[in-house]
């Protein structure tokens, strides 16, 4: 049995696939690749998988962590798995994990970027995003450069893209989701020293 | 062909609707789109929402079949949900195919499957959003041909004025021939294409044939030798029937007199267990699905079932794949079979006794006895299931109060059987209003009126005494409308257009069905809708007489007489009943099974 932690990306129109559908989509691909997953016990056994806190639909994920448990894993496994994923989903790297700690407990921060879909955002967008994150006790750091707001935030369950977009709408900076391009650039641990989100692998 | 809709435009639309993954395509097993100017491009269109359409096995077969033809390519589209329709209209975006994202207007043909009477308004939504004229006669040279197939193509008149051609029979037989002809005629005039299609046996071109030419339904005789799929499109989101599926036979030998599929899908053509197992293994490997289905009109009747179960068991266990058999037969054998498939006894089992008394079950030739029902219920709870779901019909020919009371009696027996085995014994009874269907022995019958169905439904509900039993009945207005279209003629097409213009969409979904709009449409056009559900004279010409499914009208009349005498007709595996197929196809066993 191998516990494999992956970083994957979710891009293009595939970002509109619901986070809750990902375990099934990825398990089916793993099965097509001939990989054997460990199953949970209980009344409805299903492949054992841990995902990071949900990524809102429409938001790109550039390095999303997830844990899978396989009977066997070798260097060719990743290639085989990647070749059988649907368009828009790709595994970037993996590492075998030996620690017991659950994935969610290893995560306390994420890095987001907010850009205008058609026009660049102004500095007021940074204020709206930062103050909403602060209000939710989640703000680590917020920057603005070249029309793009980047936000490092904690409290992933309470401070996802949803409330931040609402804040931008409330501040009349955008009218809706379709005017924004949002990405989650990294998910991992906040490092106070470097003021950055460190990836898990 | 022009280019596809760009991603930025799609993002705007997708951001404003629920369940956006319905519209993104890119599923495993879909595409790639073939290059080449002389490829015949067909877009298969399912006139209901993605989750329903993706569950339809027919398109999962026709898609790879079409892609296997060197001169043709297939893409797909499903009816957009009203929120997406609104967003598309608001932004002036035409309906696109999921694969190349090209507007449907750019295809050589759009192929619609007709599976359900109440999805006809969705066909018009698809056409309208594509900028394709509704009426076949209005369509110009630059518009695609509109083709139809599926069960509805065998009683096509209510939608005939919309379509250019109908394919009567198995797509596996018809599609290659139709597409090959369209390939030869790529760039030719519509009229030329239509007359070429009209010359193919099994193709009905209303504008050329009228209703005088007899259209003979086409069949595939040997299913093991015919094309069968080893890949499927695997959705990125949950759908209604979320599984790898294999058809184990076509046709049905039972001869239930209410059942349209049982008549129009004859004769029986069984797959071998070996070929089914090989196909299922390939499918599970190529799709990764965690559930598999062996499909047919009555899978428990399949000769190959015991052998297939034995062959598949090790693989299913090793990969933890759940095997499902839809349509369990009402007897102990089937329950035993189900108990081997489901070790955890989750949920419950579903049976369809259809009618409450032996007399009425004999009238409809549902070969189920009191003992079968008792044995099935007994076995269900003995094996440890806690719940049972029972399907019945009301408004069947010759029905009396005693027959309705019989429905409640069977529910009560289920509760008692559960008690005996100390199970919860929740009984869920669903009662559908009977709709007489074209090509069946009941095609001349009067359909019970809305008032009659409502009265009977209410009576049934009021008589439920046990709190273990929950009984529901179908919306009588929907049943009425189904009945109108099930035996309709081409005079109904303008009413479909009018109801659509008034806003009707997704009529099979009760949240969108608006009966008042339909009645207004009928009234404005001077159509007496109730005349379609009335009794038909035995000698009267019927709107589907020109479609020859293979079963003789004389046989249907004979079956009707036997129904009125409550005489059963044997399962034709036990001996030929002379339905009309004997001698017409080599595969018809004529009772030698």
Describe this structure in words.
The complex is a heterodimer of chains A (201) and B (593). The mean pLDDT of chain A is 96. Chain A has two domains: 2-105, Alpha-Beta Plaits; 107-199, Alpha-Beta Plaits (2-Layer Sandwich). By secondary structure, chain A is of the alpha+beta class. In chain A, strands 1, 2, 3, 4, 5, 6, 7, 8 and 9 form a nine-stranded mixed beta sheet that branches. Chain A has helices spanning 22-32, 75-82, 123-135, 161-170; strands at 2-10, 49-51, 60-70, 89-96, 109-116, 139-145, 148-153, 180-191, 196-199. Chain A contains four helices and nine strands. Helices cover 36% and strands 13% of the residues of chain B. The N and C termini of chain B lie far apart (52 Å). In chain B, β3 (109-113), α5 (120-130) and β4 (145-149) form a beta-alpha-beta unit. Chain B is built from 21 helices and 17 strands. A six-stranded mixed beta sheet of chain B has the order 2-1-3-4-5-6. Chain A binds chain B through residues 12-14, 16-18, 21, 24-25, 27-32, 39, 43-46, 57-58, 84-88, 117, 176-178, and chain B through 7-8, 10-12, 14-16, 20-21, 23-28, 234, 236-238, 285-290, 319-320, 344, 346.
Outline the biggest β-sheet of chain B.
Answer: 6 strands, mixed
Stretches of chain B where pLDDT is under 50 for at least 5 consecutive residues are none
In the CATH scheme, the class of the largest domain in chain A would be Alpha Beta
Mean pLDDT of chain B: 95
In DSSP terms, counting alpha (H) and pi (I) runs of 4 or more, how many helices of chain B? 21
How many helices of chain A in DSSP terms? 4
Residue share in helix of chain B: 25-40%
Write out the strand line-up for the largest beta sheet of chain B, numbering strands in chain order.
2-1-3-4-5-6
Radius of gyration of chain B using CA atoms only: 24 Å
Q: What structural category characterises the helix and strand content of chain B?
A: alpha/beta
Classify the helix fraction of chain A into a percent range: 10-25%
Distance between the termini of chain A: 19 Å
The shape of chain A, in one word, is: elongated
By CATH, the architecture of one domain in chain B is named 3-Layer(aba) Sandwich
Beginning-to-end CA distance, first to last residue of chain B: 52 Å
Q: What value does the average pLDDT of chain A take?
A: 96
CATH topology of one domain in chain B: Rossmann fold
Q: Please state the overall shape of chain B, judged from the principal axes of the Cα atoms.
A: globular
Number of extended strands of chain B: 17
């Amino acid at each position: 049995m191998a516990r494999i932690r992956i970083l994957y990306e979710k891009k293009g129109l595939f970002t509109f696939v619901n986070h809750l559908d990902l375990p099934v989509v990825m398990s089916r691909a793993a099965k097509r690749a001939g990989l054997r997953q460990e199953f949970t016990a209980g009344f409805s056994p299903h492949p054992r998988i841990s995902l990071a806190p949900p990524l809102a639909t429409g938001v790109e994920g550039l390095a999303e962590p997830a844990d899978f448990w396989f009977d066997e894993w070798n260097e060719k496994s990743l290639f085989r798995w990647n070749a059988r994923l649907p368009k828009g989903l790709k595994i970037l790297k993996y590492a075998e994990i030996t620690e017991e700690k659950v994935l969610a407990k290893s995560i306390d921060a994420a890095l987001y970027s907010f850009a205008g879909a058609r026009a660049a955002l102004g500095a007021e967008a940074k204020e709206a995003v930062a103050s909403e994150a602060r209000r939710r006790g989640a703000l680590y750091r917020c920057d603005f450069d070249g029309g793009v707001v980047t936000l490092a935030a904690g409290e992933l369950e309470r401070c996802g893209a949803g409330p931040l977009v609402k804040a931008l709408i409330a501040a009349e900076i955008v009218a809706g989701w379709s005017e924004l391009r949002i990405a989650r650039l990294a998910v991992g641990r906040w490092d106070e020293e470097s003021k950055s989100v460190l990836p898990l692998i | 062909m022009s280019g596809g809709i760009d991603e930025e435009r799609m993002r705007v639309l997708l951001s404003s609707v629920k369940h956006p993954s319905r519209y993104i395509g890119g599923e495993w097993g879909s595409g790639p789109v073939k290059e080449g100017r002389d490829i015949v491009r067909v877009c298969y269109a399912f006139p209901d929402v993605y989750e329903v359409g993706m569950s339809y096995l027919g398109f999962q077969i026709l898609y790879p079949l079409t892609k296997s033809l060197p001169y043709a390519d297939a893409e797909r589209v499903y009816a957009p949900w009203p929120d997406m329709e609104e967003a598309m209209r608001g932004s002036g975006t035409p309906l696109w195919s999921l694969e190349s994202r090209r507007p449907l207007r750019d295809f050589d043909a759009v192929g619609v499957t007709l599976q359900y009477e109440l999805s006809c308004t969705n066909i018009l939504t698809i056409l309208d959003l594509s900028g394709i004229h509704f009426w076949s006669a209005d369509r110009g040279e630059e518009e695609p041909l509109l083709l139809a197939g599926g069960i509805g193509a065998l009683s096509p008149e209510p939608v005939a004025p919309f379509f250019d051609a109908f394919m009567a029979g198995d797509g596996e037989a018809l599609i290659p021939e139709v597409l090959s002809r369209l390939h030869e005629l790529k760039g030719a005039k519509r009229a030329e294409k239509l007359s070429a299609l009209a010359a193919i046996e099994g193709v009905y071109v209303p504008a050329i044939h009228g209703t005088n030419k007899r259209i003979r339904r086409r069949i595939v005789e040997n299913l093991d030798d015919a094309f069968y799929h080893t890949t499927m499109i695997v959705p990125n989101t949950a759908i209604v029937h979320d599984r790898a599926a294999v058809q184990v036979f076509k046709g049905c030998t039972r001869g239930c007199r209410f059942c349209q599929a049982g008549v129009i899908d004859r004769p029986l053509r069984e797959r071998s267990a070996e070929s089914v197992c090989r196909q299922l293994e390939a499918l599970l490997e190529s799709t990764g699905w965690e559930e598999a289905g062996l499909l047919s009109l009555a899978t428990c009747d399949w000769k190959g079932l015991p052998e297939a179960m034995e062959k598949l068991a090790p693989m299913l266990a090793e990969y933890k794949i759940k095997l499902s058999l839809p349509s369990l037969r009402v007897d102990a054998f089937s329950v035993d079979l189900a108990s081997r498939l489901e070790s955890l006894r989750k949920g419950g089992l579903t049976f369809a006794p259809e009618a409450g008394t032996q007399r009425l079950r004999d009238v409809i030739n549902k070969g189920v006895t009191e003992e079968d029902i008792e044995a099935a219920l007994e076995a269900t709870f003995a094996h440890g299931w806690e719940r049972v779901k029972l399907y019945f019909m009301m408004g069947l020919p010759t029905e009396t109060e005693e027959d309705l009371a019989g429905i409640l009696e069977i529910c009560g027996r289920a509760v008692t059987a559960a008690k005996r085995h100390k199970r919860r014994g929740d009984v869920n009874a669903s009662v559908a209003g009977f709709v007489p269907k074209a090509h069946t022995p009941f095609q001349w019958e009067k359909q019970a009126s809305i008032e009659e169905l409502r009265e009977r439904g209410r009576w049934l509900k009021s008589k439920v005494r046990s709190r273990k039993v929950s009984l529901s009945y179908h919306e009588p207005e929907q049943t009425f409308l189904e009945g109108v279209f099930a035996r309709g003629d081409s005079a109904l097409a303008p009413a479909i257009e009018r109801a659509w213009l008034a806003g009707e969409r997704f009529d099979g979904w009760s949240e969108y069905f608006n009966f008042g709009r339909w009645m207004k449409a009928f009234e404005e056009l001077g159509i007496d809708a109730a005349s379609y559900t009335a009794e038909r004279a035995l000698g009267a010409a019927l709107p589907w007489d020109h479609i020859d499914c293979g079963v003789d009208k004389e046989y249907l009349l004979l079956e009707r007489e036997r129904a009125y005498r409550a005489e059963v007709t044997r399962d034709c595996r036990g001996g030929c009943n002379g339905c009309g197929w004997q001698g017409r196809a080599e595969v018809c066993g004529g009772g030698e099974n």
